[in-house]
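[09:14] KT: can someone run the structure on this one? pasting the chain below
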Amino acid sequence: MTLIHVPRPPRNAYDPNRPVSALLKAQVEYLHDAERRLPSHYRGEIYINAIKTEGEAAKYIREVTEAIHEAHEEAAAARTRVAPKRKRVIEIAAVADERAERKRTSTAQKRSKKKTSGKSGRKK
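[09:31] RB: done, structure tokens below
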């Protein structure tokens, strides 16, 4: 595999006091739409029209991203169900005993029916 060298960004690439660019403003609006779909206890208190600098935008993006992750983790935990403790050995043994008992009684009932039906047609 070929190694690709990516140069470090210059120090002036991020300036927290620089005004928000159109691209960053669009990202903030997109995240605001995502935030509105979250449950109310995950929503932040930041008014997006008050965001004027890159630093404020970065703070808002971080808060919304963390809230989305927390909501996802909570939903995933709610979806996982706890497996019940099983006592299969005892249950299987009990079912086997019940089946054997039912088999014995049904066999005995069949035999008694055959005996009674055979006596009704006696020869004299």
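[09:33] KT: thanks! Residues 104 and 110 are 10 Å apart (CA to CA).
[09:34] RB: yep, looked fine to me
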